[in-house]
């Protein structure tokens, strides 16, 4: 009942009415006859966006944990490289990183015959591995700094108590340090994941056909400008809403 009362507040009702009116106007006044023709390509692009987001976020977080730990408590020969990596990633545009990997690293591989004859060549000649790598490194660079603060914020008394009971370091890290650090930064991780979603359209610049690239193709083929962009905005809002809902559930759990 509390949620219903909050939803039925006057300003929320007005916003919902305005939104409903806008949806009705768009449905009646704008052109949507192109959707059946491009629906299969749009579904393929949507799937590409989702799996690139999921893979790069997961791999980026797995890399961010040791980066944050190295900066928080690691020796200088680990903390300095980790801090340098995070500084470079956070200080340079993601588009530049994508282009450096695709047009730089990707252009070097064909020069080596042993790479061209290997089983990895069918993948290395495509654009999506470089897109996934760039997004993974970008997420790791930002979240590495976030995890540094998260590890530093865990109460030292709990760690000292675990040591006094003879708990091994890895067990202490797995049961006490890492879970509390993740719990402390869940809201930040949720926001960063949504930002990662908004960064995925950049991979269209290296010929990866995700949902933004599909909307661009519709505009170039049909000269219909606003409708694909509006539908694209709805898709991104829906995915962002699912991400935000999932992280809120994790926070409450």
Automatic annotation (TrEMBL):
Main localization of the protein described in the UniProt heading: membrane
Keyword Nucleus among record annotations: no
A single cellular component GO annotation: ATP-binding cassette (ABC) transporter complex
Membrane-related topology note: Multi-pass membrane protein
Pfam families named among the record's database cross-references: BPD_transp_1 (PF00528)
Subcellular location: Cell inner membrane; Cell membrane
Segments crossing the lipid bilayer: 12-30, 50-70, 229-247
Gene3D superfamilies assigned: MetI-like
InterPro entries assigned to the protein according to its UniProt record, in alphabetical order: AA_ABC_transptr_permease_3TM (IPR010065), ArtM/GltK/GlnP/TcyL/YhdX-like (IPR043429), MetI-like (IPR000515), MetI-like_sf (IPR035906)
Domain of life: Bacteria
UniProt-recorded Gene Ontology molecular function terms: transmembrane transporter activity
Family label: Belongs to the binding-protein-dependent transport system permease family. HisMQ subfamily.
Keywords, alphabetical: Cell inner membrane, Cell membrane, Membrane, Transmembrane, Transmembrane helix, Transport
Domain ABC transmembrane type-1: residue ranges: 46-247
Gene Ontology terms describing biological process: amino acid transport
UniProt name for this protein: ABC transporter permease
Organismal lineage: Bacteria, Pseudomonadati, Pseudomonadota, Alphaproteobacteria, Rhodobacterales
């Amino acid at each position: 009942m509390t949620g219903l009362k909050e939803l039925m507040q006057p300003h929320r009702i007005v916003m919902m009415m305005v939104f409903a009116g806008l949806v009705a106007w768009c449905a009646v006044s704008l052109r949507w006859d192109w959707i059946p023709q491009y629906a299969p390509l749009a579904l393929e692009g949507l799937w590409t966006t989702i799996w690139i987001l999921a893979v790069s976020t997961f791999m980026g977080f797995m890399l961010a944990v040791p980066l944050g730990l190295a900066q928080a408590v690691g020796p200088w020969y680990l903390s300095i490289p980790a801090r340098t990596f995070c500084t470079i990633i956070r200080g340079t545009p993601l588009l530049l990183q994508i282009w450096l990997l695709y047009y730089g690293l990707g252009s070097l591989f064909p020069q080596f015959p042993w790479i061209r004859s290997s089983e990895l060549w069918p993948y290395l000649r495509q654009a999506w591995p470089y897109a996934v790598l760039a997004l993974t490194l970008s997420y790791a660079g930002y979240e590495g700094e976030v995890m540094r603060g998260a590890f530093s914020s865990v109460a030292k008394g709990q760690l000292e108590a675990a040591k006094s009971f003879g708990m091994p370091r890895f067990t202490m890290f797995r049961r006490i340090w890492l879970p509390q650090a993740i719990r402390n930064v869940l809201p930040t991780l949720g926001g960063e994941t949504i930002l990662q979603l908004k960064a995925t359209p950049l991979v269209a610049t290296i010929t990866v056909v995700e949902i933004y690239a599909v909307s661009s193709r519709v505009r170039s083929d049909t000269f219909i400008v606003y409708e694909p962009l509006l539908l694209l905005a709805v898709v991104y809002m829906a995915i962002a809403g699912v991400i935000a809902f999932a992280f809120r559930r994790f926070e409450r759990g």
